[in-house]
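Async update (no meeting this week)

Hi team, since we skipped the sync, here's where things stand on the single-chain job. The sequence we agreed to prioritize is pasted below, unchanged from the tracker. I ran it this morning and attached the output directly underneath so nobody has to dig for it. Comments welcome in thread, and please keep replies under the output.
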Amino acid sequence: MTLRENNWDGRLQPDHAPRSVASNQPSQRQGLGICDQSHVRAHLNIRFVRNSAFGTIAAVCNTAANFLSGLIVARLLGVEGVGTYSFAVWIIAVATTITGAGLPFTLTRYLPEYAVVDGEQKARGLAAFLLRPVFAFNMLPIAIAISCIIWFSRGDTGQALLRDPLLCLLIGLSCAAQGLGDFAKAYLRGMHAMDRVARISSIAMFLQLVLIVLGSLQFGVQGAMFGYLIGAVLPIIPIRDFWREKPYAPAETKRRLFKYARYRWASEIGAAFVFSRIEIFFLHAFWGAQSVGYLAASLTLANLAIQGPLMLSWGLLPHFSEKFGQKDMDGLRAAYASGTRIMGFLILPACFGLAAIVPVLLPLLFGQAFSDAVPSAVVLVAAASVPATATVGANLIWAMERSDVDFYLGIVGAVLSVSGGLLLIAPFGLMGAAYSRAITQCVVIGLGTWFLWRRLGFDVPFNALARLLLAALLCAGTARLCLIVMPTPLGVVVAIAMGAFTYLAAVRVFGGLETEDIAKIRSLADHLPVSAGAIAHRLVYYALG
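Output:
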Protein backbone atom coordinates (compact mmCIF):
# COMPACT_ATOMS: atom_id res chain seq x y z
CA MET A 1 0.00 0.00 0.00
CA THR A 2 1.28 3.48 -0.85
CA LEU A 3 0.16 6.93 0.21
CA ARG A 4 -1.32 9.67 -1.87
CA GLU A 5 -1.77 13.38 -1.30
CA ASN A 6 -5.26 14.45 -0.35
CA ASN A 7 -6.28 17.12 -2.86
CA TRP A 8 -8.20 19.05 -0.24
CA ASP A 9 -5.75 19.50 2.59
CA GLY A 10 -2.45 18.05 1.37
CA ARG A 11 -2.23 15.37 4.06
CA LEU A 12 -1.04 11.93 3.07
CA GLN A 13 -3.79 9.36 2.79
CA PRO A 14 -3.67 5.61 2.05
CA ASP A 15 -3.90 4.87 -1.64
CA HIS A 16 -5.32 1.50 -2.65
CA ALA A 17 -5.75 2.50 -6.27
CA PRO A 18 -3.29 1.70 -9.05
CA ARG A 19 -0.37 4.09 -9.50
CA SER A 20 -1.32 7.10 -11.57
CA VAL A 21 0.53 8.73 -14.42
CA ALA A 22 2.10 11.12 -11.90
CA SER A 23 3.84 8.20 -10.25
CA ASN A 24 6.17 8.26 -13.24
CA GLN A 25 6.78 4.50 -13.45
CA PRO A 26 8.91 3.60 -16.48
CA SER A 27 6.30 1.48 -18.17
CA GLN A 28 3.75 4.26 -17.91
CA ARG A 29 6.10 7.05 -18.93
CA GLN A 30 6.78 5.39 -22.26
CA GLY A 31 3.11 5.34 -23.16
CA LEU A 32 2.13 8.85 -22.13
CA GLY A 33 0.19 10.74 -24.74
CA ILE A 34 0.07 14.47 -25.26
CA CYS A 35 -3.15 14.83 -23.27
CA ASP A 36 -1.73 12.80 -20.36
CA GLN A 37 1.44 14.88 -20.34
CA SER A 38 -0.61 18.08 -20.32
CA HIS A 39 -2.68 16.73 -17.45
CA VAL A 40 0.42 15.88 -15.40
CA ARG A 41 1.98 19.27 -16.10
CA ALA A 42 -1.25 21.05 -15.10
CA HIS A 43 -1.41 19.00 -11.89
CA LEU A 44 2.18 19.93 -11.01
CA ASN A 45 1.53 23.61 -11.69
CA ILE A 46 -1.61 23.58 -9.53
CA ARG A 47 0.24 21.85 -6.71
CA PHE A 48 3.08 24.35 -7.00
CA VAL A 49 0.67 27.28 -6.68
CA ARG A 50 -1.09 25.57 -3.78
CA ASN A 51 2.21 24.94 -1.97
CA SER A 52 3.21 28.55 -2.55
CA ALA A 53 -0.11 29.70 -1.08
CA PHE A 54 0.35 27.66 2.10
CA GLY A 55 3.98 28.70 2.24
CA THR A 56 2.77 32.28 2.09
CA ILE A 57 0.42 31.74 5.03
CA ALA A 58 3.20 30.15 7.10
CA ALA A 59 5.68 32.86 6.24
CA VAL A 60 3.18 35.64 7.03
CA CYS A 61 2.85 34.28 10.54
CA ASN A 62 6.60 33.75 10.88
CA THR A 63 7.41 37.22 9.61
CA ALA A 64 4.80 38.92 11.77
CA ALA A 65 5.91 37.05 14.91
CA ASN A 66 9.62 37.64 14.30
CA PHE A 67 9.08 41.29 13.48
CA LEU A 68 6.87 41.89 16.52
CA SER A 69 9.21 39.99 18.84
CA GLY A 70 12.11 42.12 17.57
CA LEU A 71 10.14 45.28 18.25
CA ILE A 72 9.13 44.13 21.71
CA VAL A 73 12.66 43.10 22.67
CA ALA A 74 13.91 46.46 21.42
CA ARG A 75 11.29 48.37 23.41
CA LEU A 76 11.71 46.31 26.60
CA LEU A 77 15.47 45.70 26.62
CA GLY A 78 16.82 48.80 24.86
CA VAL A 79 19.62 49.10 22.32
CA GLU A 80 22.23 47.06 24.23
CA GLY A 81 19.68 44.41 25.27
CA VAL A 82 18.51 43.84 21.73
CA GLY A 83 22.17 43.80 20.67
CA THR A 84 22.92 40.94 23.09
CA TYR A 85 19.77 39.08 22.05
CA SER A 86 20.59 39.51 18.36
CA PHE A 87 24.14 38.27 18.90
CA ALA A 88 22.77 35.14 20.62
CA VAL A 89 20.32 34.52 17.77
CA TRP A 90 23.17 34.99 15.28
CA ILE A 91 25.19 32.31 17.10
CA ILE A 92 22.20 29.96 16.81
CA ALA A 93 21.82 30.67 13.09
CA VAL A 94 25.49 30.02 12.34
CA ALA A 95 25.68 26.94 14.56
CA THR A 96 22.55 25.49 12.96
CA THR A 97 24.07 26.03 9.54
CA ILE A 98 27.18 24.10 10.57
CA THR A 99 25.38 21.23 12.33
CA GLY A 100 22.79 20.94 9.57
CA ALA A 101 25.48 19.50 7.25
CA GLY A 102 23.34 20.52 4.27
CA LEU A 103 20.94 17.64 5.01
CA PRO A 104 17.62 19.49 5.44
CA PHE A 105 17.94 21.11 2.03
CA THR A 106 19.15 17.83 0.53
CA LEU A 107 16.01 16.13 1.87
CA THR A 108 13.75 18.76 0.32
CA ARG A 109 15.61 18.41 -2.98
CA TYR A 110 15.36 14.60 -3.30
CA LEU A 111 12.12 13.67 -1.53
CA PRO A 112 9.82 14.77 -4.41
CA GLU A 113 11.89 12.79 -6.89
CA TYR A 114 11.92 9.59 -4.84
CA ALA A 115 8.28 9.90 -3.80
CA VAL A 116 7.34 9.98 -7.49
CA VAL A 117 9.63 7.14 -8.61
CA ASP A 118 9.68 4.75 -5.61
CA GLY A 119 6.56 5.70 -3.67
CA GLU A 120 6.05 7.74 -0.53
CA GLN A 121 6.86 4.92 1.89
CA LYS A 122 10.36 4.69 0.41
CA ALA A 123 10.57 8.48 0.56
CA ARG A 124 9.86 8.34 4.29
CA GLY A 125 12.56 5.68 4.54
CA LEU A 126 14.95 8.12 2.89
CA ALA A 127 14.06 10.72 5.53
CA ALA A 128 14.62 8.11 8.27
CA PHE A 129 18.03 7.30 6.79
CA LEU A 130 19.12 10.95 7.02
CA LEU A 131 17.59 11.45 10.47
CA ARG A 132 20.39 9.53 12.22
CA PRO A 133 23.26 11.82 11.19
CA VAL A 134 21.01 14.87 11.62
CA PHE A 135 20.28 13.91 15.22
CA ALA A 136 23.94 13.23 15.97
CA PHE A 137 25.10 16.54 14.49
CA ASN A 138 22.47 18.54 16.37
CA MET A 139 23.49 17.14 19.74
CA LEU A 140 26.90 18.80 19.32
CA PRO A 141 25.75 22.34 20.31
CA ILE A 142 24.42 21.02 23.62
CA ALA A 143 27.73 19.32 24.34
CA ILE A 144 29.64 22.47 23.39
CA ALA A 145 27.37 24.64 25.56
CA ILE A 146 27.95 22.40 28.60
CA SER A 147 31.70 22.47 27.91
CA CYS A 148 31.62 26.29 27.77
CA ILE A 149 29.74 26.45 31.06
CA ILE A 150 32.34 24.24 32.73
CA TRP A 151 35.28 26.10 31.14
CA PHE A 152 34.12 29.66 31.88
CA SER A 153 33.09 28.77 35.41
CA ARG A 154 36.82 28.48 36.19
CA GLY A 155 37.59 32.15 35.63
CA ASP A 156 36.31 35.51 34.39
CA THR A 157 37.50 35.26 30.79
CA GLY A 158 35.84 35.22 27.39
CA GLN A 159 32.66 36.79 26.10
CA ALA A 160 30.15 37.96 28.70
CA LEU A 161 27.46 36.14 26.75
CA LEU A 162 29.26 32.81 27.20
CA ARG A 163 30.02 33.46 30.89
CA ASP A 164 26.28 33.37 31.67
CA PRO A 165 25.68 29.62 32.23
CA LEU A 166 21.89 29.75 31.77
CA LEU A 167 22.12 31.86 28.60
CA CYS A 168 24.84 29.57 27.25
CA LEU A 169 22.69 26.49 27.87
CA LEU A 170 19.64 28.12 26.27
CA ILE A 171 21.69 28.88 23.16
CA GLY A 172 22.89 25.26 22.93
CA LEU A 173 19.37 23.84 23.37
CA SER A 174 17.99 26.33 20.83
CA CYS A 175 20.61 25.26 18.27
CA ALA A 176 19.63 21.61 18.64
CA ALA A 177 15.88 22.29 18.56
CA GLN A 178 16.09 24.59 15.56
CA GLY A 179 18.27 22.13 13.63
CA LEU A 180 15.84 19.25 14.17
CA GLY A 181 12.88 21.50 13.42
CA ASP A 182 14.47 22.60 10.13
CA PHE A 183 14.87 18.95 9.13
CA ALA A 184 11.24 18.16 10.02
CA LYS A 185 9.96 21.10 7.97
CA ALA A 186 12.24 20.09 5.11
CA TYR A 187 10.51 16.70 5.13
CA LEU A 188 7.06 18.31 4.97
CA ARG A 189 8.11 20.60 2.11
CA GLY A 190 9.56 17.70 0.18
CA MET A 191 6.31 15.76 0.62
CA HIS A 192 4.29 18.81 -0.52
CA ALA A 193 2.58 19.03 2.90
CA MET A 194 2.83 22.81 3.02
CA ASP A 195 -0.48 23.08 4.87
CA ARG A 196 1.13 21.32 7.83
CA VAL A 197 4.16 23.59 7.62
CA ALA A 198 1.77 26.55 7.74
CA ARG A 199 -0.08 25.25 10.81
CA ILE A 200 3.00 24.24 12.78
CA SER A 201 4.93 27.40 11.95
CA SER A 202 1.97 29.60 12.87
CA ILE A 203 1.43 27.97 16.26
CA ALA A 204 5.17 27.86 17.03
CA MET A 205 5.75 31.50 16.17
CA PHE A 206 2.70 32.67 18.13
CA LEU A 207 3.86 30.72 21.16
CA GLN A 208 7.37 32.06 20.74
CA LEU A 209 6.11 35.63 20.52
CA VAL A 210 4.05 35.37 23.71
CA LEU A 211 6.85 33.75 25.69
CA ILE A 212 9.46 36.24 24.46
CA VAL A 213 7.26 39.08 25.70
CA LEU A 214 6.66 37.47 29.09
CA GLY A 215 10.26 36.34 29.43
CA SER A 216 11.67 39.75 28.53
CA LEU A 217 9.44 41.44 31.08
CA GLN A 218 10.43 39.08 33.90
CA PHE A 219 13.98 37.93 33.16
CA GLY A 220 15.47 40.17 30.46
CA VAL A 221 17.61 38.59 27.75
CA GLN A 222 17.50 35.16 29.41
CA GLY A 223 13.70 35.20 29.37
CA ALA A 224 13.64 36.27 25.73
CA MET A 225 15.96 33.38 24.82
CA PHE A 226 13.74 30.91 26.70
CA GLY A 227 10.80 32.05 24.59
CA TYR A 228 12.92 31.59 21.48
CA LEU A 229 13.77 28.04 22.57
CA ILE A 230 10.15 27.00 23.15
CA GLY A 231 9.16 28.31 19.73
CA ALA A 232 11.93 26.21 18.17
CA VAL A 233 10.79 22.96 19.82
CA LEU A 234 7.29 22.63 18.34
CA PRO A 235 8.37 22.20 14.66
CA ILE A 236 10.20 18.98 15.65
CA ILE A 237 6.88 17.12 15.96
CA PRO A 238 6.59 15.98 12.28
CA ILE A 239 9.66 13.78 12.75
CA ARG A 240 7.29 11.23 14.27
CA ASP A 241 5.91 10.67 10.74
CA PHE A 242 9.03 8.79 9.69
CA TRP A 243 11.39 8.16 12.58
CA ARG A 244 10.18 4.55 12.95
CA GLU A 245 10.43 3.85 9.21
CA LYS A 246 13.05 1.44 7.94
CA PRO A 247 15.92 3.52 6.51
CA TYR A 248 16.01 3.39 2.71
CA ALA A 249 19.00 4.53 0.67
CA PRO A 250 20.40 2.40 -2.18
CA ALA A 251 24.07 2.79 -2.99
CA GLU A 252 23.48 5.13 -5.93
CA THR A 253 21.09 7.20 -3.83
CA LYS A 254 23.70 7.54 -1.07
CA ARG A 255 26.27 8.70 -3.59
CA ARG A 256 23.95 11.40 -4.98
CA LEU A 257 22.73 12.45 -1.54
CA PHE A 258 26.11 12.87 0.08
CA LYS A 259 27.71 14.52 -2.93
CA TYR A 260 24.88 17.06 -3.04
CA ALA A 261 24.91 17.47 0.75
CA ARG A 262 28.67 18.08 0.88
CA TYR A 263 28.51 20.89 -1.65
CA ARG A 264 25.31 22.21 -0.10
CA TRP A 265 26.88 22.20 3.36
CA ALA A 266 29.98 24.01 2.17
CA SER A 267 27.87 26.53 0.25
CA GLU A 268 25.66 27.15 3.29
CA ILE A 269 28.70 27.82 5.44
CA GLY A 270 29.96 30.22 2.78
CA ALA A 271 26.51 31.78 2.54
CA ALA A 272 26.59 32.33 6.30
CA PHE A 273 29.29 34.91 5.64
CA VAL A 274 27.13 36.58 2.97
CA PHE A 275 23.54 36.33 4.20
CA SER A 276 23.59 35.29 7.88
CA ARG A 277 24.56 38.62 9.41
CA ILE A 278 28.29 37.98 9.81
CA GLU A 279 28.50 41.76 10.25
CA ILE A 280 27.07 41.25 13.73
CA PHE A 281 30.21 39.34 14.72
CA PHE A 282 32.57 42.10 13.57
CA LEU A 283 30.43 44.88 15.04
CA HIS A 284 30.22 43.07 18.37
CA ALA A 285 33.99 42.53 18.38
CA PHE A 286 35.02 46.07 17.35
CA TRP A 287 32.16 48.35 18.44
CA GLY A 288 30.12 46.53 21.12
CA ALA A 289 26.50 45.51 21.73
CA GLN A 290 25.04 48.97 21.06
CA SER A 291 26.14 48.95 17.40
CA VAL A 292 24.77 45.42 17.07
CA GLY A 293 21.43 46.72 18.34
CA TYR A 294 21.36 49.41 15.65
CA LEU A 295 22.27 46.90 12.94
CA ALA A 296 19.62 44.47 14.21
CA ALA A 297 16.94 47.15 13.83
CA SER A 298 18.17 47.94 10.30
CA LEU A 299 18.18 44.28 9.28
CA THR A 300 14.73 43.75 10.77
CA LEU A 301 13.29 46.34 8.40
CA ALA A 302 15.28 44.91 5.48
CA ASN A 303 13.85 41.45 6.18
CA LEU A 304 10.38 42.90 6.56
CA ALA A 305 10.60 44.36 3.06
CA ILE A 306 11.46 41.06 1.37
CA GLN A 307 9.71 38.43 3.47
CA GLY A 308 6.30 38.89 1.90
CA PRO A 309 7.38 38.15 -1.68
CA LEU A 310 9.83 35.46 -0.55
CA MET A 311 6.91 33.53 0.89
CA LEU A 312 5.98 32.64 -2.69
CA SER A 313 9.31 30.87 -3.20
CA TRP A 314 8.69 28.08 -0.69
CA GLY A 315 7.31 25.74 -3.33
CA LEU A 316 9.96 26.50 -5.95
CA LEU A 317 12.54 23.83 -5.15
CA PRO A 318 10.18 20.81 -5.20
CA HIS A 319 8.51 22.23 -8.32
CA PHE A 320 11.82 22.74 -10.14
CA SER A 321 13.13 19.36 -8.94
CA GLU A 322 10.18 17.51 -10.44
CA LYS A 323 10.55 19.31 -13.75
CA PHE A 324 14.28 18.63 -13.80
CA GLY A 325 13.67 14.95 -13.01
CA GLN A 326 11.29 14.80 -15.99
CA LYS A 327 13.86 16.56 -18.24
CA ASP A 328 11.33 19.34 -18.87
CA MET A 329 13.86 22.05 -19.70
CA ASP A 330 11.33 24.20 -21.56
CA GLY A 331 9.12 24.15 -18.50
CA LEU A 332 12.08 25.10 -16.31
CA ARG A 333 12.98 28.05 -18.53
CA ALA A 334 9.40 29.32 -18.59
CA ALA A 335 8.99 28.88 -14.82
CA TYR A 336 12.29 30.66 -14.11
CA ALA A 337 11.52 33.67 -16.32
CA SER A 338 7.97 34.02 -15.00
CA GLY A 339 9.00 33.52 -11.38
CA THR A 340 11.76 36.12 -11.64
CA ARG A 341 9.41 38.70 -13.14
CA ILE A 342 6.79 38.09 -10.44
CA MET A 343 9.43 38.24 -7.70
CA GLY A 344 10.80 41.51 -9.09
CA PHE A 345 7.27 42.91 -9.40
CA LEU A 346 6.70 42.33 -5.68
CA ILE A 347 10.15 42.90 -4.16
CA LEU A 348 11.41 46.02 -5.94
CA PRO A 349 8.62 48.36 -4.77
CA ALA A 350 8.66 46.78 -1.31
CA CYS A 351 12.38 47.48 -0.85
CA PHE A 352 12.71 50.89 -2.47
CA GLY A 353 9.35 52.07 -1.13
CA LEU A 354 10.25 51.03 2.42
CA ALA A 355 13.70 52.62 2.11
CA ALA A 356 11.98 55.91 1.28
CA ILE A 357 9.92 55.92 4.49
CA VAL A 358 12.59 54.50 6.85
CA PRO A 359 13.59 57.94 8.28
CA VAL A 360 10.14 58.26 9.84
CA LEU A 361 9.15 54.59 10.21
CA LEU A 362 12.18 53.25 12.10
CA PRO A 363 12.06 55.68 15.07
CA LEU A 364 8.28 55.27 15.11
CA LEU A 365 8.57 51.49 15.49
CA PHE A 366 11.70 51.04 17.60
CA GLY A 367 11.79 54.33 19.47
CA GLN A 368 13.92 57.45 19.23
CA ALA A 369 16.82 55.59 20.84
CA PHE A 370 17.29 53.81 17.48
CA SER A 371 17.40 56.97 15.32
CA ASP A 372 21.10 56.47 14.64
CA ALA A 373 20.18 53.29 12.73
CA VAL A 374 18.30 55.19 9.99
CA PRO A 375 21.18 55.65 7.47
CA SER A 376 22.25 52.00 7.67
CA ALA A 377 18.64 50.86 7.39
CA VAL A 378 18.13 52.83 4.15
CA VAL A 379 21.17 51.15 2.59
CA LEU A 380 20.27 47.64 3.76
CA VAL A 381 16.58 47.83 2.83
CA ALA A 382 17.34 48.99 -0.72
CA ALA A 383 20.17 46.47 -1.17
CA ALA A 384 17.96 43.59 0.03
CA SER A 385 16.12 43.75 -3.32
CA VAL A 386 19.06 42.15 -5.14
CA PRO A 387 19.35 38.76 -3.35
CA ALA A 388 15.59 38.54 -2.87
CA THR A 389 14.83 38.93 -6.57
CA ALA A 390 17.50 36.32 -7.35
CA THR A 391 15.81 33.70 -5.14
CA VAL A 392 14.13 32.05 -8.14
CA GLY A 393 17.47 31.55 -9.88
CA ALA A 394 19.04 30.17 -6.70
CA ASN A 395 16.30 27.54 -6.38
CA LEU A 396 16.78 26.62 -10.03
CA ILE A 397 20.53 26.04 -9.56
CA TRP A 398 19.84 23.87 -6.50
CA ALA A 399 17.19 21.84 -8.34
CA MET A 400 19.64 21.15 -11.19
CA GLU A 401 22.07 19.61 -8.68
CA ARG A 402 24.62 22.38 -9.17
CA SER A 403 25.22 22.95 -5.48
CA ASP A 404 28.92 23.09 -6.38
CA VAL A 405 28.23 26.56 -7.80
CA ASP A 406 26.95 27.66 -4.40
CA PHE A 407 30.14 26.31 -2.88
CA TYR A 408 32.38 28.48 -5.06
CA LEU A 409 30.12 31.50 -4.66
CA GLY A 410 30.24 30.92 -0.91
CA ILE A 411 34.04 31.08 -0.99
CA VAL A 412 33.90 34.38 -2.85
CA GLY A 413 31.33 35.70 -0.39
CA ALA A 414 33.35 34.58 2.61
CA VAL A 415 36.46 36.36 1.34
CA LEU A 416 34.48 39.54 0.65
CA SER A 417 32.71 39.41 4.03
CA VAL A 418 35.89 38.97 6.04
CA SER A 419 37.62 41.67 4.00
CA GLY A 420 34.66 43.97 4.58
CA GLY A 421 34.74 43.21 8.29
CA LEU A 422 38.38 44.22 8.55
CA LEU A 423 38.47 47.07 6.01
CA LEU A 424 35.02 48.64 6.45
CA ILE A 425 33.40 47.54 9.72
CA ALA A 426 36.44 47.86 11.97
CA PRO A 427 37.18 51.50 11.02
CA PHE A 428 33.67 52.76 10.09
CA GLY A 429 31.35 50.80 12.36
CA LEU A 430 27.66 50.65 11.54
CA MET A 431 27.75 52.23 8.07
CA GLY A 432 30.77 50.12 7.19
CA ALA A 433 28.70 47.05 8.09
CA ALA A 434 25.81 48.20 5.89
CA TYR A 435 27.99 48.85 2.85
CA SER A 436 30.03 45.68 3.38
CA ARG A 437 26.87 43.56 3.38
CA ALA A 438 25.39 45.35 0.35
CA ILE A 439 28.58 45.06 -1.74
CA THR A 440 29.16 41.41 -0.86
CA GLN A 441 25.61 40.33 -1.68
CA CYS A 442 25.50 42.24 -4.97
CA VAL A 443 28.80 40.72 -6.16
CA VAL A 444 27.82 37.16 -5.23
CA ILE A 445 24.35 37.46 -6.79
CA GLY A 446 25.84 39.00 -9.91
CA LEU A 447 28.21 36.06 -10.36
CA GLY A 448 25.42 33.54 -9.76
CA THR A 449 23.17 35.24 -12.30
CA TRP A 450 26.00 35.28 -14.86
CA PHE A 451 26.45 31.52 -14.40
CA LEU A 452 22.74 30.88 -14.84
CA TRP A 453 22.64 33.03 -17.97
CA ARG A 454 25.91 32.16 -19.71
CA ARG A 455 26.67 28.64 -18.50
CA LEU A 456 23.24 27.08 -18.06
CA GLY A 457 21.58 28.95 -20.91
CA PHE A 458 18.63 30.48 -19.04
CA ASP A 459 17.48 33.86 -20.32
CA VAL A 460 17.38 36.41 -17.51
CA PRO A 461 14.47 38.86 -17.99
CA PHE A 462 16.68 41.94 -17.71
CA ASN A 463 14.35 44.13 -19.75
CA ALA A 464 11.33 43.36 -17.59
CA LEU A 465 13.33 43.88 -14.38
CA ALA A 466 14.61 47.26 -15.63
CA ARG A 467 11.02 48.38 -16.30
CA LEU A 468 9.92 47.22 -12.86
CA LEU A 469 12.91 48.94 -11.24
CA LEU A 470 12.00 52.24 -12.90
CA ALA A 471 8.43 51.89 -11.61
CA ALA A 472 9.76 51.09 -8.11
CA LEU A 473 11.97 54.19 -8.10
CA LEU A 474 8.95 56.33 -8.98
CA CYS A 475 7.11 54.65 -6.12
CA ALA A 476 9.95 55.50 -3.73
CA GLY A 477 10.14 59.10 -4.95
CA THR A 478 6.41 59.60 -4.43
CA ALA A 479 6.54 58.11 -0.92
CA ARG A 480 9.49 60.31 0.04
CA LEU A 481 7.76 63.46 -1.19
CA CYS A 482 4.72 62.59 0.91
CA LEU A 483 6.87 62.31 4.03
CA ILE A 484 8.67 65.57 3.31
CA VAL A 485 5.28 67.28 3.29
CA MET A 486 3.84 65.27 6.19
CA PRO A 487 6.60 63.69 8.42
CA THR A 488 4.12 62.06 10.82
CA PRO A 489 2.63 58.59 11.40
CA LEU A 490 -0.33 59.60 9.23
CA GLY A 491 2.18 60.66 6.59
CA VAL A 492 3.59 57.12 6.57
CA VAL A 493 0.15 55.74 5.74
CA VAL A 494 -0.36 58.34 3.00
CA ALA A 495 3.12 57.67 1.62
CA ILE A 496 2.50 53.93 1.38
CA ALA A 497 -0.85 54.43 -0.34
CA MET A 498 0.42 56.99 -2.82
CA GLY A 499 3.58 55.00 -3.50
CA ALA A 500 1.55 51.87 -4.25
CA PHE A 501 -0.79 53.79 -6.56
CA THR A 502 2.17 55.34 -8.40
CA TYR A 503 3.88 51.98 -8.77
CA LEU A 504 0.86 50.17 -10.20
CA ALA A 505 0.19 53.01 -12.61
CA ALA A 506 3.84 52.97 -13.72
CA VAL A 507 3.76 49.20 -14.24
CA ARG A 508 0.72 49.60 -16.49
CA VAL A 509 2.62 52.20 -18.52
CA PHE A 510 6.08 50.60 -18.62
CA GLY A 511 5.06 46.93 -18.59
CA GLY A 512 7.24 44.28 -17.00
CA LEU A 513 4.74 41.46 -16.54
CA GLU A 514 3.53 38.97 -19.15
CA THR A 515 0.00 37.64 -19.45
CA GLU A 516 1.09 34.30 -17.97
CA ASP A 517 2.52 36.11 -14.93
CA ILE A 518 -0.79 37.81 -14.21
CA ALA A 519 -2.56 34.47 -14.64
CA LYS A 520 -0.26 32.89 -12.05
CA ILE A 521 -0.91 35.72 -9.60
CA ARG A 522 -4.65 35.16 -10.07
CA SER A 523 -4.16 31.42 -9.60
CA LEU A 524 -2.39 32.07 -6.33
CA ALA A 525 -5.41 34.02 -5.12
CA ASP A 526 -7.60 30.98 -5.90
CA HIS A 527 -5.77 28.96 -3.24
CA LEU A 528 -6.17 31.47 -0.44
CA PRO A 529 -9.03 31.23 2.07
CA VAL A 530 -12.35 32.39 0.60
CA SER A 531 -12.44 35.87 2.14
CA ALA A 532 -8.75 36.59 1.50
CA GLY A 533 -9.03 35.15 -2.00
CA ALA A 534 -11.93 37.44 -2.89
CA ILE A 535 -9.99 40.50 -1.73
CA ALA A 536 -6.89 39.34 -3.61
CA HIS A 537 -8.89 38.84 -6.82
CA ARG A 538 -10.25 42.38 -6.63
CA LEU A 539 -6.78 43.81 -6.02
CA VAL A 540 -5.31 41.89 -8.96
CA TYR A 541 -8.17 42.96 -11.22
CA TYR A 542 -7.89 46.66 -10.40
CA ALA A 543 -4.07 46.65 -10.32
CA LEU A 544 -3.21 44.50 -13.33
CA GLY A 545 -6.40 44.15 -15.31
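Quick observations from my side:
Strands lie at 2-5, 12-15.
The CA atoms of residues 212 and 227 lie 4 Å apart.
Reply here if anything looks off.
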